[in-house]
Amino acid sequence: MTKAEIVNEVASATGIEKVAVQTVVEAFMETVKGSLIKGEPVYLRGFGSFIIKHRAEKAARNITAKTTLTIPAHDIPAFKPAKVFVTAVKGE
User: Fold this and answer.
1) What distance in Å separates the CA atoms of residue 72 and residue 51, rounded to the nearest whole number?
2) 60 and 71 Cβ atoms separated by less than 8 Å
């Protein structure tokens, strides 16, 4: 599902104009992104959490050049679904 499809679904479900829904969806995404940039996780009860995961430094191999290179430690954004969400997707 794309952002445009989400906007259409929410607009038809709520009766709110698509332009207003698109503004809200984009503001939500910017807010989540801004919080993660600050290092603050976002918790949405019953849905899941947007968190930052730390990846440690590790060695990798370039098999074509037969060399070893080091991938530095870094942080990446991640989503951890709530248990209710997981069980709903599983169909339990």
Assistant:
1) 20
2) yes
DSSP state of 14: H
**Which residue pairs, CB below 8 angstroms and at least 24 apart, start in 78-87?**
78/50, 78/51, 78/52, 78/53, 79/48, 79/49, 79/50, 79/51, 80/48, 80/49, 80/51, 81/47, 81/48, 82/44, 82/45, 82/46, 82/47, 82/48, 82/49, 84/46, 85/46, 85/47, 85/48
Q: What is the pTM of this model?
A: 0.79
CA-to-CA dists, residue 67 to 40, 57, 58, 64, 70, angstroms: 37, 17, 14, 8, 10
pLDDT tens across 18-77, in order? Answer: 999 999 999 999 999 999 999 999 999 999 999 999 999 999 998 888 899 999 999 999
